[in-house]
Prior knowledge:
By secondary structure, the chain is mainly beta. The protein has helices at 56-59, 128-140, and strands at 4-9, 12-17, 21-26, 40-46, 49-55, 70-76, 79-85, 90-92, 99-106, 111-118, 121-126. The protein has two helices and eleven strands.
Amino acid sequence: MSDLLCFHAFENIYGIPLDMVQESFDEQKVTPMPRLNPVFTGLCNHKGVIYPVLSFSHLMNKDIPDKRCCMLLLQVDKYQLILRMNDIPFIIYESTLTQDTPYNNDNGKVIIHRLCMQQSRCIYILDMKQTLERLLEDILT
């Protein structure tokens, strides 16, 4: 396990290994693209580079009321993308985790592979690599 960048969504806490996160920044303009898979909200020009924007709420197939959003620039193996979420992320350090167990559950699009505990908080660790691979399979088939 490693340090986690975490955020609240749908009454849960989700975490992404911090080493995948290149940058966190306030929401920027996203240009919608026709015929793009619905989990992608469009494309974003961030510092002169165009990235696909993946919506966490669309990925979970749930609606989040519009409020201040945050974007994470992620490097997942050979892929770079922006993950849009409706929360301000926070860091949970590996040394503060009291339990780390395998967890095999997915909702069809999101794959969660580990469940961690920090005091009384449960953190669902996203497997972004497998989630992206599943999305690519769906897009290409």
